Amino acid sequence: MQFKFIDPEGPEYETECMLRWESLAKPLGLPPDAELIAQDEKSMHMIAVEKKKIIGCVCFLAHNASEGEIFHMAVSEDYQGRGFGRKLIHAMEQALYEKGFRQMKVFAGSDAEGFYKKMGYHPEEEFIKRNGAQCRLMKKNITHVQDGSGK
């Protein structure tokens, strides 16, 4: 599997958006383009490619030079439950660590909270309704490049 950053102006961006919609917005009954947000152009976009197919994506928006927010993490339905999401988050964290980021946050839905806990994120707040779904703020301090296990 290959991980790479893409540009919102680049050729893979449309495929990333479709994956985000299919995985995140469509199950909530939201129309296409509902996954698009104003921060897309200011964010870093990482995709996971397997056999020349985009199978996962995650975005990151910096809040300052050392912290920011992971959002829109999605893995193609055919690849879910096989560790690809964990590898994708690890690759993003490693790349962000190398760029000087030390604290990540994510607003995790109730169905994704366990995943992020296994990845070392800790709940910071109670569940709130955000973008039509129940979620809670979770944070993780990155003190070194992780080994991929999430521990």
Q: Total number of β-strand segments?
A: 8
How would you state the average pLDDT, rounded?
Answer: 89
SSE order in H/E notation? EHEEEHEHEEE
Q: N- to C-terminal separation? A: 21 Å
Please give the count of helices. 3
Q: How large a portion of the residues is in β-strands, by DSSP E?
A: 25-35%
CATH topology of the domain at 2-101: Aminopeptidase
Superfamily at the CATH H level of the domain at 2-101? Gcn5-related N-acetyltransferase (GNAT)
Shape: globular
Helix content: 10-25%
The low-confidence runs, each spanning 5 or more residues with pLDDT under 50, are none
Task: Write up this protein.
About 25% of the residues lie in helices and about 35% in strands. By secondary structure, the protein is of the alpha+beta class. The protein has a domain at about 1-100: Aminopeptidase (3-Layer(aba) Sandwich), CATH 3.40.630.30. Strands 1, 2, 3, 4, 5, 6, 7 and 8 form an 8-stranded mixed β-sheet that branches. A hairpin with a 2-residue loop joins strand 2 (about 45-50) and strand 3 (about 55-60). It starts with a strand and ends in a 10-residue tail after the last strand.
